[in-house]
Amino acid sequence: MKRLTSTLKEFCEKQEVLRLAYVDRGGPRVVPVWFVVIGRDYYVGTYANSPKWKAIKRKPQVAWVVDGGKQGKYKGASMFGRAEEITDRKLRAKIYRAMGVKYFGSADHSKHVEIWGEVDDPSSLYMRLKAEDGFWWEY
């Protein structure tokens, strides 16, 4: 898969919402989720007992889009691939901290801790979205 341009990668990293598509027992779903980009990979979090994770665990093929802009200046990336659970403690901690900084300014922010628990909370689950292919636009 071709790499995103540096300006598009930076644009995507700064967006607040990633729209994640997956298939559950009722059919396809698309949900907005918080995310971070570390390296070339997109990471999202959810609760370990969430219907979203249960569906993705059964069928890990997913797609996602990050887009935005103002009239006449749109940018975005649409990708598909697989979701995989992150079990490595160091990577989980890195994702946890990155989410806290991106959305609350700090991983110690009380609202971040309220949502995600402590850094090693087993009720929180983080996924890597591994892109297999995609396309993007800047116009």
| The CATH topology | Pnp Oxidase, Chain A
Rg, alpha carbons: 15 Å
Share of residues in strands: over 45%
Low-pLDDT regions: none
How many domain units?
1
The geometry reads as globular
Strand arrangement, major sheet = 2-1-5-6-7-4-3
Describe how the helices and strands are arranged.
Layout lengths: L5 H9 L3 E7 L2 E7 L1 E4 L2 E7 L3 H8 L2 E10 L2 E13 L3 H16 L5 H7 L7 E15 L1
Antiparallel strand pairs: 1-2, 1-5, 3-4, 4-7, 5-6, 6-7
Helix pairs in contact: 3-4
Question: How is this structure best described in words?
Answer:
With 139 residues, the chain is an alpha+beta fold. It has one domain: Pnp Oxidase, Chain A (Roll), CATH 2.30.110. Helices cover 29% and strands 45% of the residues. The chain has 4 helices and 7 strands. It has helices at 6-14, 51-58, 89-104, 110-116; strands at residues 18-24, 27-33, 35-38, 41-47, 61-70, 73-85, 124-138. The chain has a 7-stranded antiparallel β-sheet with strand order 2-1-5-6-7-4-3, with helices on both faces. A hairpin with a 2-residue loop joins strand 1 (18-24) and strand 2 (27-33). The chain is globular and about 40 Å long. The protein starts with 5 loop residues before the first helix and ends with a strand.
